[in-house]
């Protein structure tokens, strides 16, 4: 398994792109691997909720989830990919072998570009055993 600097990836691949106002990488247990500054405040309960979304997709679609106290409806969830929508805009997420990467899309940015960033990073993690 390759050594990866997750914090550097959040900063250089996600935050510097301008596509995201916030981003976080967590393990399946909800533990934070890396995050943007504001996401350091994301509660463990929200991170565990996020990590559990794929266990009950129907429930996730029905109940949605929260990020930094803001509620999002779960619009899309499949084996790896997630899109949430709320009053604050969109979030996109991707589940790799051991991690979940989530980005809060900057208002006015198209979902497609944000999706490419998140999926690309998630696939990179998969290729490297994460």
Summarize the structure in words.
The protein is of the alpha+beta class and 130 residues long. The protein is built from 4 helices and 7 strands. The chain has a 7-stranded antiparallel beta sheet, with helices on both faces. The longest helix has 17 residues, at 111-127. It is globular, with a radius of gyration of 13 Å. It starts with 5 loop residues before the first helix and ends with a helix.
Q: In a nutshell, what does this entry contain?
A:
This protein has 130 residues and is α+β, with helices and mostly antiparallel strands. It contains four helices and seven strands.
User: How many helix segments?
Assistant: 4
Largest sheet: 7 strands, antiparallel
* First-to-last CA distance: 8 Å
Rg from alpha-carbon coordinates = 13 Å
- Which stretches are poorly predicted, pLDDT < 50 over at least 5 residues? none
Strand content: 25-35%
Mean pLDDT: 94
Secondary-structure element order, N to C: HEEHHEEEEEH
DSSP strand tally: 7
Into which percent range does the helicity of residues fall? 25-40%
Instruction: Tell the overall outline.
Output: globular
User: Strands of the biggest beta sheet: in what spatial order?
Assistant: 2-1-7-6-5-4-3
Helix/sheet category: alpha+beta
